Amino acid sequence: MPQVSAACFARPIRADHLARAGVKLRFLLAEAGASRPDAAALGRGVVATARHTRTYLDGTRDLLRARNAGSAAKSLERIQRVIESLRRTVGEMAPALDRVIVIAGDGEDAAALAEVWFQGGGPQELAAEGKMRQALSARLSALGPVRVSDLAHLACLWSDSQRFHAALRGVLESRGQAGHAAFLEAVSGCLRDHILPVDLLGLPGDPGLLQGIPAMISRLRAGRASRKR
Question: What pTM value is reported for the model?
Answer without folding.
Answer: 0.84
